Description:
The protein has two helices and seven strands. The protein folds into two domains: 1-31, no CATH class; 39-131, CATH 2.40.50.140. The longest helix is centred in the N-terminal third of the chain and has 9 residues, at 5-13. The protein is mainly beta.
Amino acid sequence: MAIDARTKAILKHAGLNRDISPTKKFSLPPSTPSPRTSIQSLVAERPFARVEIVILRKYPRRYVSNQRYTGYVAAACGRDETGFTGLVLWGKQVDEVRVGDIVRIEAGWTRRHAGELIISSGRNGKLSVIEA
């Protein structure tokens, strides 16, 4: 099956101007990030698309071993321009994140603990350090 000229032009405009044969697989460029959610608009027990916070404090790590997770966990707290929140760091995130870093959490979840909002990337989300 041949690719027509219109499809080639569209793919070239999208930055995919390399060899585009029907048998060759290619990936689309990364999509634009989902809109940022502010801490003030987060709702407990609901997932969120993307949050960016500044880490204000990081607590010592501890080792956890149970049926659902085995590894290191640490608590942290952070803020954006609308408020403060707690943050749970899992596994390698514990060593990657430092006080003063700006982090982005994508596809995360929220919980309420002792009346305070807690967020985390969980199993399916992603935490990345934007600025150190």
